[in-house]
Every structure is written in C-alpha cells, then in structure tokens.
Amino acid sequence: MTHRSGYEQAAHLYDLFDRKPNVEFFARYTLAAGEILDVGAGTGRIAIPLAERGVRVHCVEPSPAMRGEFERKLAQRPKLREQITLVAGDARSFDLRRPLQYKGKSDCRTVGGGTFPTAFLSGTFDHFLDDEERLASLRNVARHLDPGGALVFDVFLGLMRDAPLSPAGSVQVGDREYRRFVGTQVLADQTQQTHLVFEVYQSGQLLERIEEHSLVGIVSREHLHRLLTQAGLELKQEFGDYDFSPFREGDALLIVEAEKGRLRG
Question: Rounded to the nearest 5 degrees, what angle is found at the Cα of 91, between the Cα atoms of 10 and 221?
Fold first, then answer.
C-alpha cells in the first residue's frame, strides 16, 4: 500500500470515527497464534488491544502521520513496546524476513528474520489501486506467512458510486464536537476518490476545518478470487460482517480468510 494522503492532516482524529467492531474478530485469529503481522496498522487501533492480551504484533504502516499517532499511544503504554514492533513500509515492498535494526523512541532492537502464522490487512486492501499493486502486495504478504499460514483482510464491495459531500458522523469529547463529512466520486480508471472534511467545534464555535482527499481501488469479488490464486493463496472462508456471519451476495463488506499453500515458498 503506497501512502496517498487521506489522513495526513487528520490522523489525530482517525480513531474518533473508525468505530468498526472488528477488534474481537481479529482477536479470534491471534490469541491461538501468539504472534501476528499487521500490514497497514494505522494508529494501532487493532494492534494495541491485541498486544494488551499478550500477542506479539509486528506492524507495518506507510503513513508518517498514522505512525506518529501509533507512537504517541505507545508512549502512554511503555510496557507494550516489548509486544509491538512498528516499522515504516508499504505492503508491496516491506521485508521482515531479514533481521533489521528497529529504533523506537526508547529502545533499539533487532526484529524480523522469520515468517508469521497469521497476517492482517484491515482497512488496507481498498487502498491498492490496480492489479499490479494488489498482486504484488498479496505475494509479498504471502512470503511472510508460514506454510499453511492465514491471511485475513476486509474489502468494501459497496463502493462504485458517486455521493455528494454529506455528514458522516459527529463525536462529542468534553466541550468539543468533532464532525466528519464524506463525499465520493468514481473515476474512469476503476478508482474512487474520497473527499473528507473534518470540523472541530468548541461551545458552538468552529475551531478547525481539515480537508483531505484519498483514492481507493474498486475490485469485484470474483476478480479478488483470481488474484488470491495467482498469489499462491487458497480461499478458505468468506464473511459478510465482523460477527463471522457468512457472506451473502449483495453484502457491501467482504472479509476473506485465505491460506498459504504448505508447499510454497
């Protein structure tokens, strides 16, 4: 995943509005594994709760602003630094199979050098804009999986529509109100441009207005199946929500569990 704006100015507001009930979903895959790879880890919204349960989490994130928010959270939870590794990189090119020196804000240690029983791409796959990027990312993640290891990721099939900038949530924190507005436009190259506006109010007065734009890719379920096969991954299960309900045709959300072939490198 190449970083393409979206939350560089508003990373500090990301967690206020990303309320997907997916932490427990991903926890079901990690507690038995004990160690996982989180690609596109964002602000650590999933990684930190898993680390608090004793899971060793290796995180890859391309956005400097999102990594900054992640580091800010870790500064408030110093004991979790033994459980979490956070490195800069995108899904196509990161490499944790060879040891590297990770310099955190309070430590320096060697990480990597292995593969993982489970990998996540939460809220990440949509940001791959074409098949070249999708396939390169899937293959690179597969290289980081143990034989028989699981890749779990979500993708929103309910894209492909134009929508004017409209209210998309309001959150009250103390005497401040945070409002979000979202608009979308489908482009000719099978991508969708998302227009995000954030407004911060205090006592009814506008304090700050942040405007962001980002791109997401549009892919069908059938095409996604073909990409998994090309990447050496076998589809195991599909869900339509984070409660493990089976996917049904017409669902806007598709959650995929795929397995790396046991004989593949």
Answer: 95
